[in-house]
Amino acid sequence: MPPARDIMAHRGDDDEVCPVCKSSRYLNPDMRFLINPECYHKMCESCVDRIFSSGPANCPVAGCHKTLRKNRFRKQTFEDINVEREVDIRRRVMQILNRREEEFDSKRAYDDFLEQREEIIANLVHGTDVAKTESDLQRYAADNMRSIRANQALEAQEASSFREQQTHEQELARLRREAARLEYENERKEMLAGREDVLSRLAAGRPGDAAAIAREGHKVLLKKSSARRSEEDRIRQKQAALRNSDARKAGQGALTTADRADDSGDSGLIKGLKKIKTPEPEKPYDPFGGLIPNKRDYYTLRDHYPNSYLDPIRQDTRMQAGGYDLQEYYSRTLMEAFAGLGCFIDEEVSKREVTSTMGISRPVATQGAALAAVSSAGAPEASS
Amino acid sequence: MIEDEIYRSSSQFRLWSFTEASLKQLRATTNSVASDRVRAALRRAQDARRSATSSTTGTPAPGSDAENKAAEDKQIECLTPEEEQQVVDYYSEQIIQLGENYKPPLPTIVRATAIQYLRRFYLTNSPMTYHPKQIMPCALFLATKTDNYYLSLRQFAEGVPGQTSADDIIAPEFLVMQSLRFTFDVRHPFRGLEGGIMELRAISQGQGQPAPHLQPSQTPEDLRRALLSLSPSSATANTMNDRISRAHHSTREILKAAAQITDAYFLYTPAQIWLSAFLLADRPLAEFYLDTKLGGPIISSSSTNHDQNPLYALRTKLLTTLANCSALLQAYKPFASDEARMKTLKRIVGKKLYHCQNPEKANIAGQKRIPAAAAAAAAAAAAAGESGTSESEMERLAKKRKLERGSETKDLFGGELVTQRTKERQMEGDQQQ
């Protein structure tokens, strides 16, 4: 029945017949088509199972000699196989060329980069210069492994933080709704209680007080509600402040992750990248400015030196009680014995005089000071 | 060497170390500037005197002015830098004497600090401007404070001979501090000497530690044997301990006097000074000690030794420096022992300095004690019968003093160095042209 088959073919846009085994959806309603991003030839699930279960094999479509693996087969997302292919290519290229705007010197450079990326994608999609583009891309990927990784991690982090933020916001909204509901209920309950109270007092009181009681009850209610409102305002402000600080913190976090070290400043493929200076690893704080406190070059300090004056101190509790430490004396005397032994003043001072400009910390400076002192004190009017 | 770096950070090295040439030049400049001022001041004083007399006696003889001036210029004979140096040296010695006046005598280190203050002060000031007699007690008093040897001012003033009041002593204090550029730290060689002696004693008892860079090759026992095998310097010393004590004592004597009164502190570092003095006291001992620090004795012919000792260059340089310093210390003779020198000094101080003393600087106390002066003036005014206005009068006087001293207070830390120097240069240029 050719007309029926025609109808079938037309209705299913020949999607409904597996090009490999020619079985149709008509016969097998559960049939699913799969494609492989190697060649984008589509075939039904049973064909994939049949052909590729025992390892990689050639594509069964005539004229296509690509070797396919079973695990790469997936469901088609877009109806148009070309779109599907372009999306795949785009995803792959974007994963490699994942530079971010802040890595570029200027907006212009970033735009150039985006254009270049589009060009590469177009080349790959339309098959112009594929070999060269592909090799460029591979080389770039190999060269910039680290920055690519880092950017990927960054992207993943951003995505996850975005998700987190969204769920957080939803949660907050839910809480707010909950709070509003609770508040409404409380208010109603209170109003009822107040009314009840007024009624009971009216019942118990004398008829003359009625107006006063009613007024009082109304006032109490008003006071309560206004107090509640101000309290809520306060809480709300607090929450807002908290939210702001959270947001700020998140921003800072993003910033700190953004300034990471990179290996190569300008890769061959992409122009206009910022020169990234790897910040010097921060040295541990050195309070002595390079001097090692207990290192000495001229002498080795001992724990004890024989000395007829000092030795009695070691036993003298009156001396020791105040915290006097002979070690301090030893180290200081030996230090002073050699401090400056290798400073040759005649050489160093003359060098200093030559190098110093305009006599800052020069002997002339002292002279200048003295002259100034002399001249200022020497004004005859002042001293006479 | 880390010890050297530590010393390089001291104010003594940064501000108060000079080469011989720069020291000389500095003193010459100070002297020439001070002499100019003294001449100018004396001329002004004479002019004032003459104008005072002329106003009473009538018009002076016209045309004689220029002659007078020329004659005066000849009259005013200022000190030369060398003479100034003599004066400062003499008063440095006087500080040592002054220290003995107290009971107990002032510690050596206080006196030494005071001497250095005095010497530093007279690097940039001339004895013609400020008489050392006024500055000396002040420097000593300042030293008792900076060296943590407390004496009350009254107590201190009692020890100073002559009619010196407490106010006279502290009057130039700020001036002195300013000239010291507020650096009160003086690195003395005394404690270093104690350290060296201490280590030598340790070595003699076989407890010496070799210097870090010679650590593996030397043992305490090696050091001890080397020390004991030294040739005896004098026949009197029988044991090593005795010898070290003797050397210690004589080194200390040298440091107490010779190192203070000479320019050693300006030209050498404390470590070099005490080692030079030690060399003078007991040469073999000192050389042995140096060798323990700077590597073994150098046999000049063998090149291998040169390679072995990385401190060779330092050692040779240091030995010449120490030799120079020793020569400087050895050349020192106290004034008391030198009759001729004492005589010239008396001439300088007694006559010349008296005549060329800057008259405008004579009364430091009067210049500095403003509140007192103002109070006195106010009191005088009050005595004259204006008791109602005395308060405002006092204020007015204080204000006036302040205004007059405006320029001085601005220069609290020595004024602008740059302008000062350019001025000087211009002056020099003018003189050359």
From TrEMBL, chain A:
Pfam families: MAT1, zf-C3HC4_5. Keywords: Coiled coil, Kinase, Metal-binding, Nucleus, Transferase, Zinc, Zinc-finger. GO terms for molecular function: cyclin-dependent protein serine/threonine kinase activator activity; kinase activity; zinc ion binding. It is found in: Nucleus. InterPro entries: MAT1/Tfb3, MAT1_centre, Znf_RING, Znf_RING/FYVE/PHD, Znf_RING_CS. Residues 18-61 form the RING-type domain. The keyword Coiled coil applies. Residues 165-192 form a coiled coil. GO terms for biological process: nucleotide-excision repair; regulation of transcription by RNA polymerase II. GO terms for cellular component: transcription factor TFIIK complex. It comes from the Eukaryota. Residues 223-289 are annotated as: Disordered. Its main location: nucleus. PANTHER family: CDK-ACTIVATING KINASE ASSEMBLY FACTOR MAT1. This is RNA polymerase II transcription factor B subunit 3. It comes from Aspergillus eucalypticola (strain CBS 122712 / IBT 29274).
From TrEMBL, chain B:
It comes from the Eukaryota. Keywords: Cyclin, Repressor. Residues 37-73, 382-433 are annotated as: Disordered. Pfam families: Cyclin_C_2, Cyclin_N. Residues 37-50, 404-413, 421-433 have a biased composition (Basic and acidic residues). The keyword Repressor applies. Component of the SRB8-11 complex. The SRB8-11 complex is a regulatory module of the Mediator complex which is itself involved in regulation of basal and activated RNA polymerase II-dependent transcription. The SRB8-11 complex may be involved in the transcriptional repression of a subset of genes regulated by Mediator. It may inhibit the association of the Mediator complex with RNA polymerase II to form the holoenzyme complex. The SRB8-11 complex phosphorylates the C-terminal domain (CTD) of the largest subunit of RNA polymerase II. Component of the SRB8-11 complex, a regulatory module of the Mediator complex. Belongs to the cyclin family. Cyclin C subfamily. This is RNA polymerase II holoenzyme cyclin-like subunit. It comes from Aspergillus eucalypticola (strain CBS 122712 / IBT 29274).
